[in-house]
Design a protein that fits this description.
Order of helices and strands: HEHEHHEHHEHEHHEHHEHEHHH
Structural class: alpha/beta
Bound molecules: phosphoenolpyruvate, magnesium ion
Amino acid sequence: AREAEDAAPPEPGALADGTAVNLLANLGKPGDAADAVARGAEGVGLFRTEFLFLSSAQAPTIEQQRAAYIELLAAFEGKKVVVRLLDAGADKPLAFLNDAHEENPALGLRGLRALRASEDILREQLTALAEADAATAADLWVMAPMVTTVEETEYFTTLAKDYGLKTTGVMVEVPASALLADQVLLHADFASIGTNDLTQYTMAADRLLGSVASFQDPWHPAVLRLVREVGEAGARRGKPVGICGEAAADPLLAVVLIGLGATSLSMAPAALADVRRMIATHTLDDAKRIAAAALDTSDADAAREAARSAAQR
Ligand code: PEP
Ligand code: MG
């Protein structure tokens, strides 16, 4: 079976009732594209652009950025590629963007907040993306990290559209934007939930701090309820809601996330096969029932257990 699987290109992601769920890749550099395609990624759900910035003392030029984006987009002709703008700050500090000392950098000038404070860098990144988009034939979606307010959503999507970028959205990584997702999705074409940060901010536990690592569990029903807010808002507004945090790589949690309204899942390419296999064994009604069981609990372990037993029924 293993050999046959390696030989034939994997089927697109689908539930047992035929409902399509795009299975996408999280990538950190263009060179990772070939492996993702070989593993059946139907596109890219999160392209992290930090690699362009972290290695140097200054921002890369527009030309350097354009070349990297063209390399990525060319590998996914006709497919969806979601590029995230630079997410500097907190766990990804950058000397030229995050120069002031912050006592609590995860709560400071990071993500879109940092880009907005250095708008020249934001504008250069949008320029490079628009040029790469014009030179290639992928379906480019662009999103901003760490968006907290509706006003920030409107600011970013308006600015990105001014550069000719067609599909512009936001990452939902902060409880505030999850709770106001119906308002956020009036302005954004899509939302992508970053469960790593959404968990950190919901549980008020630094994701880098070992002493509070037990709080960093996306199965926690408080996190799941926020995901449900976004999923329901997406359904009401007719807008896609993706998941691009590590949670999407947990096969049973992937089913729960679909049951909460996620329309695509993005993950490390190595996780695609197991998630594809698991979601194919459940219908959308199953996923909703399993999600309801997980939601109706008081902690992460109980949610995991409730989902497991609901999935066996
Ligand atoms: C997340 O926060 O879930 C996410 C996908 O972004 P990153 O891990 O890069 O912060
Ligand atoms: Mg994040």
